Amino acid sequence: MVPALAVADALRADGAEVEFVGGERAERELVPAAGYPFHELAVRGLDRKNPLKALKAIWLAFTAFFKARRLLRRLGADAVMGGGGYVAGPVGLAALTLGLPLVLTEADSHLGITNRLLARRARRLYLAFPIEGVEGEVVGRAIPDGTVGADREAARARFGIPSDALVILVFGGSLGALRINRASVEAFGAAAPAGAHVLHASGRRDHDELAVTLRTLGDPPHYHLEPYITPFADALAAADLAVARSGGSVFELAAAGLPAVLVPYPHATADHQTGNARWMADSGAAVVVPDAELDAARLEREVAALVGHRERLARMAAASAGLARPDAARDIAAGVIAELPT
Length: 342
Description:
Blueprint: H1 2-13, E1 20-22, H2 27-33, E2 38-40, H3 51-75, E3 80-82, H4 88-97, E4 102-106, H5 113-118, E5 124-127, E6 137-138, H6 152-159, E7 167-171, H7 178-188, E8 197-201, H8 204-216, E9 223-226, H9 232-238, E10 241-244, H10 249-256, E11 260-262, H11 272-282, E12 286-288, H12 296-307, H13 310-322, H14 328-338
Parallel strand pairs: 1-2, 3-4, 4-5, 5-6, 7-8, 7-10, 8-9, 10-11, 11-12
Helix pairs in contact: 1-14, 3-4, 6-9, 7-8, 7-12, 10-13
């Protein structure tokens, strides 16, 4: 939803009216909170291991298609943008049968099944990464305005971090990442390399467990544990190095010019997080550690090798900034508007 909302903001800034069609997942809360009308369709993923569940998913998609047609007619939609996912399939197909322009976006390093099915009939396909064998315009992953650009000194003051400290930012997505969370506290709870400070956004699920561990270490002043950090731009501004998963946040790291130790989530669809991580690593902006190989000792070695060599860290930061695509949301919005009927 993050890139979709970023494009929506760019469209609204250009005078377009934007409404969302989504399922029962995070979009149900995120979209209204961002100020957009939200229309829910009941759909689910295709379970290839359970024939009964697969049949139900097909039936839901079939009925969602007709509901989407009625909805698009009632709204008087002029164009439809699909961001992949279950709902984008029936809504995109409904748009095509109604003769509406369809623009697709792909935020991952592989083309999802919905986009694979619709791409040939879409007017435009925007890609976050180059994908072998796929024709589309590579514009990067859209990130919201305000993702970067926070004041560094103010951000550090917010967390009680000295202005001259080297800061390691640890995070694992909205729910956190248990393996990264535990490895970080074990590796850096007692002491961080080169006297660094650690800013750790753990997610609520693991926060209490980690807080207890840090309490047994005397609540070290160099370790700053937070369940969430909002706005996250403050965390990015305060940091010199990130330890993270490698979902769509790799574009936020690039926008902030942050080097990273990336630990791809091994169960991501089509292993796209490994592809994302390799994209950064191949450009010299990141070090990749497979999830199964991550423990406190490995994390400590990888981070120490970077913070102990500031010139290397600076080169990685420059490489990360070179990957940034800050205009992705505006580029995609412009493409959607170009397809509107005159």
